[in-house]
Each structure stands twice: as C-alpha cells, then as structure tokens.
Amino acid sequence: MKLIGIVGSNADHSTNRTLLRFIQKHFSDKAEVEVFEIKGLPAFNEPKDKKAPLGIQELADKIEAADGVIISTPEYDHSIPAALKSVLEWLSYSVQPLVDKPVMITGASYGSLGSSRAQGHLRQILNSPELKARIMPSAEFLLGYSLQAFDEEGNLLDQEKVAELEDCFAEFQLFVEMTNLLLKERQKRTTAKPAFSWKEIIASEAEGNE
C-alpha cells in the first residue's frame, strides 16, 4: 500500500512532521509512506486559468498515485494553519486529486487537546464539494503535549499512544481497501448503464405511433 503523509505545517520545527516520520518508520512493513512538506508552497491566489503551481501539481500527482492520504495538522487558534488551508484551496480550485481519495487525519499539539478542534474543521473542509475526500469515520489520533511525546530518535514514548496509533493505522488500511472496492463497484454500475439518448426515445415513440 502506498500512502502520502502531508505535514500540515510550514514551521521549521513541527511535532506533526515528527509524528508522520514516526508513522513512516513504525509501519514500514505494512505500507510505503512518503512524507510531503507544504513549506515553501505559494499562497492561494485564485488564478484565472485555474492552473496549479509546480509544487501544488507535484503534490496532486503524488496524491493521485497514492492509495490513501494521511494529513497531520497542528491547531492554530482553534483551526488548521493558514498554510494547510491554502494548499487545500489550491487542490480544490485546480486539479482536485482528493475526490474519493481515502484520508486519515492525525494531529499533534503542544497542549492537552491534541488538535481536536482543528481536526474537526479539517473534516468539514475535506467534505466540501470540490475536495470530496473519503475521510475515515469514527477515528482520530490526537497527540497532546507533543513536545514531550518523542525521544531524541523521534520515537513515540507513550506505549498506550503507540497502541492507539496502531489500531488507527490498521483501520485505515482496511478503510482504504473497502473504499477502493466501493469505487470499483460504482464504476462497474456506471459502465453497465446504457447511454441516454433522446434520438432513441423519439425513434421508439415514432415506432409505437405507426
């Protein structure tokens, strides 16, 4: 399984980056996780041609190629950082790679709540019509007091939180598989439906009137 983990912060030192790198290392036998930085990406400016800048297009291509996405967000003023919001605005306005893409949300914060309100806002954003991601339901990984949560090698110290993360990751793997199966079944149904044609209806009515 190929996953892309998006660091939801452009800060030089981010515990959400540390969390994603721990996920990358800890689950290396279960999935290939690439960690993607949003630092340095341009702010959304609504270009008339709706063309994504190079860095945004690179991210979009990686999302398209991945089986699923993990977004790890901090919490700034009860919501997600402006840098992450800007990236999502680019993706919704231009190439829309998150449509029907399985997404797992995680978050780390310096305080006790572990980005819970930011995660709630991120779910709302990802549910918007232009993003329309498939967000894993009824599961969220919240890491509070994140400055004290890791050792010098970036390992998560609290074994209960490690076990919780393992449960979330296992559920996400299953969620990715189930989502992709549902999408395949939907594609089969769509392909099986005959194309609508006014000409055929008119011809059929004309034959009935003869």
What does this structure look like?
With 210 residues, this protein is α/β, with parallel strands linked by helices. The chain has helices at 15-26, 54-65, 82-93, 116-126, 159-192, 198-209; strands at 2-7, 32-37, 68-72, 102-108, 134-135, 141-143. Strands 1, 2, 3, 4, 5 and 6 form a 6-stranded parallel beta sheet that branches. It is globular, with a radius of gyration of 21 Å.
Question: Keyphrases for this structure?
Answer:
single chain; globular; 6 helices; 210 residues; 44% helix
Please state the average pLDDT score. 92
Question: How far apart lie the N and C ends?
Answer: 60 Å
Structural class: alpha/beta
Q: Give the H and E element order.
A: EHEHEHEHEEHH
Number of DSSP strand runs: 6
Q: Tell me roughly what share of residues is in helical segments.
A: 40-55%
What percent of residues are in strands?
5-15%
Largest sheet: 6 strands, parallel
What would the principal axes of the Cα set say about the shape?
Answer: globular
Rg calculated over all Cα atoms: 21 Å
Number of helices: 6
Please identify the oligomeric state: single chain
Task: Report the uncertain regions.
Answer: none
Topology:
Elements: E1 2-7, H1 15-26, E2 32-37, H2 54-65, E3 68-72, H3 82-93, E4 102-108, H4 116-126, E5 134-135, E6 141-143, H5 159-192, H6 198-209
Parallel strand pairs: 1-2, 1-3, 3-4, 4-5, 4-6
